[in-house]
Amino acid sequence: MKLRYNSAGITLIEQLVALLLGTVIIASLYEFYRAELFRTISQEAKVSTLEDARGALDIIVRDLRNAGSWGTGSAPPERGGTDDPNNDADTVCNRVYAASGGMIHVQMDLNGNGSCADTEPRENVRYELTGPTSTCPGTNIIRRNGDCLVANVKIAAVGKLFTYYDVTGADLGDSPSPTAIKRIRIAFAVQVKNPDPQVGGNMMSTLSTSIELRN
Q1: What pLDDT score does 4 carry?
Q2: Which end of the chain has fewer CB atoms within 10 angstroms, the N or the C?
């Protein structure tokens, strides 16, 4: 049997159709790869930011739980200036020196040397929600004794980083009596820029916890 040979080969239309199909397949693969790549990068950025924020939250919790820990069994006298920044009428250190929705100042005597002004270990600690600095970005930041602890902070209720409750569980408001505080709730979010330029905006993670004060 004699075979016939098609001398016409592949037509221009067939070539164009093949090119079009190849382009569609390559474009689909590219978009899939790109989406997976940016999803991975976004997750890594979000996890890294969240881990840093959790570490900072652990520091805040540790300090607040140690508030009012007097190594000698009673609060040592204030020294003025170093542990009494307001130079008020107090004569002894305070478990909670001052408190508001965006700030808390606590004292302790961890080493039992009769002073609550030591810096190692840190015994006179002030946390506050403030604006950004040149090295600590974001609309809000959390400072620990003036140093940047958490950057890019977002607060659900403006200025409400801390919420205070008394021994009965009643909310003490934004200007509580320091001696009435029994439990403190901390709540804030951290945000990081979405690395995918097609999506834009910020990715956000929320952290919260409650602490029962010692005394």
Answers
A1: 55
A2: N
